[in-house]
Structure formats: structure tokens, C-alpha cells
Write a structure and sequence with these properties.
The protein is of the alpha/beta class. It has 10 helices and 8 strands. Strands 1, 2, 3, 4, 5, 6, 7 and 8 form an 8-stranded mixed beta sheet that branches.
């Protein structure tokens, strides 16, 4: 069993997005997914690395045609348990690095909302994005989520008191040197832009999907519904502010395939 499988087998990934502070990331991501699919009459949606189906199942239950690909069997089992058989969704086990099950230009919207968290080499990141570009129609959208470097430095290294444990995992300019045993690959906005430059893609938006939510998780989880609604108003008003993007825990890169 891989480190990734061990991690997700023991983690309640489903409830991460159900907490009130986790809802910030979920609601933001869904907002921009809906914005992308609204450009098509009957969009074909591919989610690569669908996890437990938080997004794929929700979209399928809204009536969208979804194909969900997931590597970890435990996550697939949870995803399938949410379906009653009426949803227009195809579910299969697969890897972001090899989407050969799909023909070129098959989907209007392709989502990689988890794979880039766990790809540690430049070659693998290029391969995953290359496959996403290949299976997406010209004029279609690719949505890619990333875990950001600075939030980890601030929260884990300093607030969490782990400075003495991570010295060999930090570059001189405080970039985390992730390895598979750390589970998550951490990037900066310039790393994302350098990867995009290799492909025929135009950025539509780069969004801070959770913004300050993880920094203030206890506060947000204790908010009344009215106060949380106001927080979401503030978050949506600022989540595209490029001066704040790098400090978010997660970002969503929204790209359009040229053609």
C-alpha cells in the first residue's frame, strides 16, 4: 500500500469539507465550477482525482454528465456509496498521469482538484497537466487545485512549533522541499505560472479558495449562520485579490484551452 493510500484510508476527508471553515473551500470551488460549466449547453465534465466525490457527486446530482477518476480504492468506495444509480456519472479507478482511457478532446471541463497535491516532480506535474489538456476540448476549461507554500510555513512551521523539525526540508528562501512521505507538495504562484507556460492555456482566474479560513478555523466554526454568510461575502469579495493569493492554503487555477 502506498503512503498516499495509507493517508486517505485513515483520514476523514469527507468531513474536512463539511466543517464550517471547510465549507469556504467547497463553496468557493463550486462557485467557479458552475461559472465554467455555464458556458456550455450540455457540458461533459471530467474530474481526475475525484476523492470521495464531494464535487463529482454533487454535480451529477445536479444533472451534469460527470466522469470521476480516482486512484485510491477507499475513496472510490465512499464515492460509490453516495450514489443511488440515477445520477449521470461514470466512476473508474485511474491515475492522473495516464488518461489513455479517454480520447483527445473529449470533455468541456476537466478538473484536477487533488492530483497536484501529491505530484512531487516537475515531470509528473507536466504529465498530469498534459493529459488534462489532451482530453479537454479547445475552448474548454481546466480547473487545477494546489496546496500553497506560505500557509504551511506560517501555520505548521511557526504556529505549530515545528521549526526545529523541518530545517532540512526548507530552501534558503523558505520554499518547502516536499517528498512523498510528507504527502503534500507545496507550491508558490510563480511555480504554477511556470508550469502553465508550457501549454496552450490562458489563465482565466487564480483564486484563493479558502483564503484565511484555516488561519481562523476555530473562529469560523463558531460563527452563527448570519455571521458566516457575511464571512463568505467578504471572502468572495477578496478571493481573487492577487496580493492575497499566496497565503491561502489552497488555490484554484482556472485555465482555458486555446483553440
Amino acid at each position: 500500500m502506498s503512503l498516499l493510500e495509507e493517508y486517505y484510508n485513515s483520514r476523514d476527508e469527507e468531513n474536512r469539507l463539511l466543517s464550517q471553515h471547510g465549507q469556504v473551500e467547497y463553496l468557493t470551488t463550486m462557485k467557479y465550477i458552475h461559472e465554467c460549466v455555464s458556458h456550455f449547453t450540455d457540458p461533459g465534465i471530467l474530474e481526475v482525482g475525484a476523492g470521495t466525490g464531494r464535487y463529482s457527486v454533487a454535480l451529477a446530482k445536479e444533472g451534469y454528465s460527470v466522469t470521476a477518476v480516482e486512484l485510491v480504492q477507499h475513496n472510490l468506495d465512499v464515492l460509490r456509496s453516495k450514489l443511488d444509480g440515477t445520477e449521470p456519472i461514470a466512476v473508474l479507478q485511474g491515475n492522473a498521469l495516464d488518461l489513455s482511457a479517454f480520447q483527445d478532446k473529449s470533455f468541456d471541463v476537466t478538473m484536477l482538484l487533488g492530483p497536484m497535491y501529491h505530484l512531487y516532480t516537475t515531470e509528473d506535474k507536466i504529465q498530469a497537466l498534459s493529459e488534462a489538456v489532451r482530453v479537454t476540448k479547445p475552448g474548454g476549461y481546466i480547473l487545477v487545485a494546489y496546496c500553497m507554500n506560505e500557509a504551511t510555513i506560517i501555520q505548521y512551521v511557526f504556529l505549530g512549533g515545528h521549526l526545529n523539525e523541518v530545517n532540512n526540508l526548507l530552501t534558503d528562501d523558505w520554499h518547502c522541499k516536499s517528498e512523498p512521505k510528507e504527502i503534500f507538495e507545496l507550491v508558490r504562484t510563480e511555480d504554477i505560472s511556470q508550469l502553465n507556460a508550457l501549454f496552450p492555456l490562458d489563465r482565466v482566474r487564480l483564486v484563493a479558495t479558502d483564503g484565511a479560513a484555516h488561519y481562523l478555523s476555530g473562529l469560523i466554526d463558531g460563527m452563527s449562520q448570519d455571521t458566516f454568510a457575511k464571512w463568505m461575502e467578504y471572502h468572495f469579495a477578496t478571493c481573487e485579490r492577487q496580493d492575497l493569493i499566496g497565503a491561502s492554503n489552497h488555490t484554484l487555477d482556472i485555465l482555458k484551452v486555446r483553440g
